[in-house]
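Researcher: Re-running this chain for the archive, since the previous output was lost when a drive failed. Same request as before.
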Amino acid sequence: INEMISNLRDTTEKNTEQNWLKTNLAKFSRLLQGQRDLTQVGQTILSELAPVVGAHQAEFYVLNAPAEGEAPRLKLLATYASRGQLAHGKEISLGEGLIGQCAIEKQRILLTSVPSGSFRIASGLSETAALDVLVLPVVFEDQVRGVIELASLERFNPSHHAFLDQLTESIGIVVHTIEANTRTENLLKQSQSLAEGLQQTNQEVQG
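Model: Regenerated structure tokens:
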């Protein structure tokens, strides 16, 4: 009987985990639908994500499209309870620190039982050491598109890991879509202004 109860408990826990996973993934797919602004997406994701996985600090970096001859860099797009909006736009090169390393390896990096002096989570009144720091790559079609860093005063559990793995895939698709749409819009604007310029030239020649 004890074994039956234990098996039943395991099954119930697994079902509860699956429901939690499905519910939250559905919530985020609704949030991300039809988004057109990358900064807005970054901020929304972090604000909604932090309470779901028990993170107390978060940062979202996207890989910029470099100019010719320049190396790509990761740009800080959004923050949650970390360095604030003044830090947005800060850049990290590939391989630099954990964020840059995560972008190269395309693998999550978990720091657990972080030394108390090295990573502090601050409120207005106090500062506390983070217990877990998780760095996640945002990948689309095997290309890194960004990196999310989460710090928590508690442990990230296996459900959190499973959820984040699936969520970062969805975020990769959204980042790719927004960037592709932005490029298309810019090209359209360029061709419009080119057409207007030609029209003006024609009018001048005819006039």
